[in-house]
Amino acid sequence: MNGLTSFFQTTGEILRLFLESIYWSKSAWRSRDKVFMQMMEIGNNTLPVAALISLFIGGVLALQSGPQLAQFGIEENIGGIVGLSMVKELGPVMASILVTGRVGSAMTAEIGSMSVYDEIDALRTMDINPVRFLVMPRFLASFLTLPFLVIYMDIIGWFGGAVVSAVNPDIHVSFSVYYRNLSELVDFSDVVNGLVKAMVFGIVVSVVCCYVGLKTKGGPREIGTSVTKAVVLSFILILIFDYYITRLLMLVGLD
Amino acid sequence: MAIRTEEKESVATSKPLFKYREARPVGVRIVNLNKSFGDNHVLRDLNLEILPGETLVILGKSGSGKSVLLRHIVGLEKPDSGKILINGEDINEARSKRKYVIAMVFQSSALFNSLTVEENVALYLREHGIVKDEDAIKKIVGSVLSVVGLEGKEKVMPSELSGGMKKRVAIARALAMNPDLILFDEPTAELDPMMTRTIGDVIKNLRRHFEVTQVVVTHDVDLAFYIADRIAVLSDGKIVEVGTPEEVRKSENPVVKGFINTRFE
Ligand SMILES: Nc1ncnc2c1ncn2[C@@H]1O[C@H](COP(=O)(O)OP(=O)(O)OP(=O)(O)O)[C@@H](O)[C@H]1O
Ligand SMILES: [Mg+2]
After folding, report:
1. Cβ separation A125–B124 shorter than 8 A
2. Cβ within 8 Å, pair B103-A125
3. Within the 172-191 window of chain B, which residues sit less than 8 Å (CB to CB) from chain A?
């Protein structure tokens, strides 16, 4: 099959899996235990690392822009700069990259090995829809959990920026100045902007990772290949979607 | 070689079984079935009649298309052409209306590795809300596990089981569905002779407890003659012989003779 048709076929199939996941969300209540377990899994696997990386992201944001601002004597704006970058871009993007690496890869591995060892076929022979049984709980959990993870990372990132701004002699902005500026510059709409991205990325990661898992054929080696494929594809799509959501939110005035 | 003690447990029980439905064994008619994968024409105008309530064994060489045939009967593959009729109805039409239950025991057992034995066996009942009462589910699980000689293994994870035990859990999982038709794909492949005998007994004795049509795919000639009411021989994508074990043993067809007489002397 040539590249272009296979590209359209894959896109179509991913879209279809997305729509099926939405459709099967009607049985979410019946699967609430599974959704909840997936949410716990996302939390357990990401919260410690998320804290660490967002602390450093906030720190490096302050470190990069703080001294520059200080040269022009406008270093008190550092709070807003770190705050906005974190909320609108780095929070959602880093959170979803983290979720891809720690949770999405596990989704692909788990569902991929179920495909390889006939477990998906076994589900089908028992009239159990694999999308309802496997994909929907992961889809909902990612979609619901990512916004919270982003808020958590935003808050820690802000704090990282505050510490660096206060401690670094080239910046030297106190906590109270930092946070006052941050609360002046970061609007509710900026937070919503970031959370919309988080939800979309949550959908992208879960659908892509489950899709690649379901498509896995062959043996153990193919499971590994699938995981790599799913992670790379998720990263690419996160960044592409990031651009288009930003454009879209600008058009509707939510920027 | 030491035989694991837990695998020697007897398989036959005469306790009454707890069931959620009365099964009615179905008949299957396969008409001019064709299936190709690319250039590989696996099933070629295959015709076969499976009678309600019998144990039919399909014998065939490795790669002859036995698994592909079973996957068509259970609806995992769609035919390129031809029909599969169950109780006279085409299975690929009005799938949602069908009133019969088909269970399949996969060559790889295909247990759900993240679920315990009990959860594996009860999955069908729980997911479809067929049996609401947890006590009733426990009874069903307990009774099908006893049929396969695995009493008390409810809480064990599949990863802790030997290959033969996995096969038996897979059989128990199929039985819990109380199917009208049960398909076994190579139930004894990769098992030692003792375990092959145990599984053979499980399959042979199932019809003491269950009203069911059984189709067993295998390349084990001894097993075939041990459990079959009728044997069908699959070769070159066609059924080349079908009949009772005596009839097949007397067959003049060179393919059949070659297949059933290939032994170490
Ligand atoms: N999904 C598939 N895609 C492509 N080819 C397939 C597929 N499934 C089966 N085949 C081919 O069909 C042929 C028959 O395969 P099948 O698995 O039915 O053999 P079998 O009789 O069950 O063998 P075994 O005893 O080794 O299990 C093989 O040549 C196999 O390569
Ligand atoms: Mg096979």
Report:
1. no
2. yes
3. 177
d(CA B49, nearest CA chain A) in Å: 21
DSSP letter string over A107-120? HHHHHHHHHHTTHH
Partners of B238 in the beta sheet?
B235
**Residue of chain A with shortest Cα separation from B104:** A125
pLDDT in tens, A87-129: 999 999 999 999 999 999 999 999 999 999 999 999 999 999 9
A107 lies within 8 A of chain B by CB = no
The number of residues making up chain A comes to 255
Within chain B, all domains assigned CATH 3.40.50.300 are found at: 21-101+181-265
pLDDT category of residue B42 using cuts at 50, 70 and 90: very high
CA dist B13 and A100 (Å) reads 50
- The residue ranges of every structural domain in chain A are 30-251
Look up tokens 């900026």; give the residue: A190
Check if A114 contacts B (Cβ < 8 Å).
yes
Homologous superfamily assigned to B21-101+181-265 = P-loop containing nucleotide triphosphate hydrolases (3.40.50.300)
**Interchain proximity A133–B127, CB inside 8 Å:** yes
Coil, strand or helix at A41: helix
* Residue of B110, B113, B123 with shortest CB distance to A121: B110
What is the pLDDT at residue B210? 84
Please give the model's pTM, rounded to 2 decimal places: 0.89
Q: Cα separations (Å) of A2 from A8, A131, A225, B37?
A: 10, 28, 21, 19
Closest ligand to C-alpha of residue B218 is 1
Q: Is the ipTM of this complex over 0.90?
A: no
